[in-house]
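ok so i was messing around last nite and threw this chain in just to see what happens. nothing serious, just curious
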Amino acid sequence: MSASRLRRVAVLVLEGAKPLDVGIPAQVFTTRASMPYEVRLCGAAPGLVSGGDGLSYHVAHGLEALAWADLVFIPGYRFPDREDPPPAVVEALLAAHGRGARLAAISTGAFALAATGLLDGRRATTHWHYTRALAAKHPLVRVDENVLFVDEGTVLTSAGAASGIDLCLHVLRGDLGVAASNHAARRLVAAPYRSGGQAQYVPRSVPEPLGERFAATREWALRRLDEPLTLDVLARQAAVSPRTFSRRFVEETGYTPMQWVMRARIDMARELLERSERSVEQIATDVGLGTGANLRTHFQRILGTTPSEYRRTFTQGE
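result:
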């Protein structure tokens, strides 16, 4: 996808909107030279919208912004399980989707998206506190409480506010590539990428003391992707048994350790394909996959395309 095309983003601010949920897409996609997006905040009508947590918002646009947008974010709002959004909002969301716009809900914004019927029969998530309420109110939605976000193509949902950052970075990766997503993550001082399959926080009765240690091990591994990284090597770095490491790693990330390492290597290869002129063989060595044939095999399996096709996609128009 060419990075030169301007993409139009609408952030739909509903009554009781949560400040972080509104701010995340507005900040991530705000117009700048490195980001080919234009953002408009809108509501059911232009003017003042009462928000949650003591804040209100003055939005310049009404629902006409949804007819303009390529991508619509629906931030979370208070008391989502009580009433559906106004019929005009639901109709505008359906119309936007009908003409090809993507709809992305952050946290309890999933309730507004579910009110359209577009999540029926599809996987979706929301803040862990509301997953049961979403399932009860919209029983045709396949609610998954154990993920950070769900991408169903033209409809996307995420868990709590911080997961909204993960969802935005996921959208950036698809639109502009890994390099742009990583650049945005650095600007936000956020983790470069957490997979949608990673578990969101759910309160447990037993403390989980290994989270920071495992995060440090992942950071350690990311700096050594060109080296042999086996389960035993990673477990030794985390100072736990391979069995414990493997079980807990899946709980935290949604991937086995070796799946995670492979995806990290493919991500590094993607960034090198986007930002360098190194050959496929050289990149395979850089990311620890040894040969170009090995890189091509895993690239095709994970991304459904070849390294050469990927490079052409993300360098055309530059």
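not much to say yet. The chain has 14 helices and ten strands.
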